[in-house]
Specification:
Layout: H1 3-7, E1 13-19, H2 23-36, E2 41-45, E3 48-50, E4 60-62, H3 66-80, E5 82-86, E6 90-91, E7 95-97, H4 101-109, E8 115-119, E9 128-129, E10 144-150, E11 163-164, H5 166-173, H6 183-191, E12 205-206, E13 209-211, H7 216-229, E14 238-241, E15 249-253, E16 256-262, E17 277-278, E18 281-282, H8 283-293, E19 299-304, H9 308-314, E20 321-324, H10 332-344, E21 357-358, E22 374-379, H11 387-400, E23 404-409, E24 412-413, E25 417-420, H12 437-442, E26 448-451, H13 464-478
Length: about 475
């Protein structure tokens, strides 16, 4: 995956890079990606840049005259597509001064500029750091803030040889100088209000980049860090990357909500399928347990309609959130819409509640910090879904950010289906009793498939014979 896709960039984005461990490499790599799509990009810095690194831009403009730089931008960008803007003053013979943060905002507002990428602090070429009192210097108009860490620092001692301002890292985390740098230490600094989240402008997305994930050990550590960071609502998502690789972003970690659709009345079956016994528990509880057991699911929603009180009672001891669907008779689309809104509701994804509870629909203007990056919809009458299948779908989404991720068996699509947040706006247009099928069809050429070796992903319980057959298979599978 490229950085454009991983950062989910839109026109006029302002990306502020902080931290260390490949920040400059990332800046120029992202600029190359953007210009390759035909966009006009400005790179700059609010601190200092090594003079030797200026050659990585095809052209540069320098201050002190801000208005003159702005006047030259249209011609320079038309010619080169990418222009580096610097302050012009040489510092310590090897570094050049950056620009003021308010000038970055002026650059971003210029009609000739499609995107701005700014280095907002320095790291003295170290892979890990904590900011000093005077940094980072992030422009107010930043839309993405990306603290960067080079994973080659893992296992190294917390000393100035390997870490920029190790005393600050120690002060923020309670570690001692000389301690080894661990995934827990990195996550603690990145999530700290005086660390990686410091200076985050209102409305900007915080997207840490775990760079130099170049082998299995560093990738495993990066996943530990990502999981820890997503416990903090201020973190939007986490990029696991190797900025110098051909495909630089290996995974993008975000929060995932699982929605169990359990509002129907089972007309064809003749009874509430949600309450059918399944291995000693109601079927809806069994399905919810699969999502609750999956370590990659952050929040579990169950929609309730027909027999709502009985369904809630069946889930009373489980850490799920029940959302009522008052107009459930209008079809599955209403259950899908209500479930998605509940998964997104309230901004931050909270710790799972200790008992089932109802959640209202998402109110207009709700702050979406801590919100989900994807939602996976489970059918309450599909007992064959497992935590392993859910994890496979989520892993596929992390690697692709595809709008739709679906399982298939022998060429046939099954359930559950995962939807990326880029599709969430399409759910409002759903109607009738066909669920999210129109969204799947609209993105048919973009589906990321997970080939599954067994047929339970295509099997649900519509009739009494389906139940008897599925129950028999389930008992045979677990030896009961």
């Amino acid at each position: 995956m490229d950085f454009i896709s991983a950062f989910r960039l839109s026109p006029k984005s302002v990306i502020a890079l902080t931290g260390g461990g490949g920040k400059t490499t990332l800046m120029f790599r992202l600029a190359d990606e953007l210009t390759a799509t035909g966009l006009h990009v400005v790179t700059t810095m609010t601190t200092h840049l090594f003079v030797a690194q200026m050659a990585r831009a095809p052209a540069n403009l320098s201050l002190p005259d801000e208005d003159a730089v702005l006047a030259q931008l249209p011609h320079s960008l038309a010619t080169h597509k990418h222009v580096l803007v610097v302050g012009g003053t040489i510092v310590e013979e090897t570094r050049i001064q950056g620009v003021a943060p308010d000038f970055v905002d002026r650059l971003a507002a210029h009609p000739a500029v499609d995107a701005v990428i700014v280095e907002a602090d320095g790291s003295r070429r170290r892979s890990f750091k904590a900011p000093a009192a005077h940094e980072p210097v992030i422009p107010a108009g930043a839309t993405v803030v990306a603290p960067v860490v080079g994973l080659d620092v893992l296992g190294k001692p917390l000393t100035a040889e390997h870490v920029h301002r190790p005393d600050r890292v120690a002060a923020l985390t309670g570690a001692s100088l000389g301690d080894p740098v661990t995934p827990e230490l990195i996550a603690a600094v990145l999530a700290h209000s005086e660390g990686g989240t410091k200076g985050l402008p209102l409305g900007a997305r915080l997207m840490p980049v775990l760079n130099k994930a170049e082998d299995e050990a560093s990738l495993a550590a990066a996943r530990q860090i990502a999981r820890r960071l997503l416990a903090y609502p201020i973190v939007d998502s986490v990029l696991i990357a190797a900025a110098q690789a051909a495909d630089p972003v290996g995974e993008v970690w975000g929060r995932v909500g699982a929605v169990v659709l359990a509002a129907g009345q089972g007309r064809r079956f003749g009874a509430l399928k949600q309450l059918l016994p399944w291995h000693g528990v109601p079927l809806v509880a069994h399905v919810a347990d699969q999502a609750l057991t999956c370590p990659d699911v952050d929040r579990v929603i169950v929609t309730v309609g027909a027999g709502a009180e009985q369904v809630r009672a069946a889930l009373a001891t489980r850490n799920v959130t029940c959302v009522p669907v008052p107009d459930w008779t209008a079809g599955q689309s209403r259950s899908v819409q209500a479930g998605l809104q509940a998964a997104r509701a309230g901004g931050p994804i909270p710790a799972r509640p200790t008992h089932a509870e109802e959640t209202p629909l998402l109110p207009p203007g709700t702050d979406d910090r801590g919100a989900i990056s994807a939602a996976v919809f489970l059918l309450a009458d599909q007992p064959g879904v497992t935590p392993q299948l859910l994890s496979a779908l989520i892993r596929r989404h992390r690697a692709t950010l595809a709008p739709v991720v679906a399982p298939r068996y022998a060429g046939r699509r099954g359930n559950p289906v995962l939807f990326d947040r880029a599709t969430f706006g399409e759910f409002a247009r759903l109607s009738g009793d066909i669920g999210a099928r129109p969204i799947i069809q609209a993105h048919a050429d973009e589906i990321a498939w997970v080939d599954w070796p067994t047929p339970e992903i295509t099997q649900d319980i519509d009739m009494a014979a389906d139940y008897r057959g599925a129950e028999g298979q389930g008992k045979a599978a677990d030896g009961s």
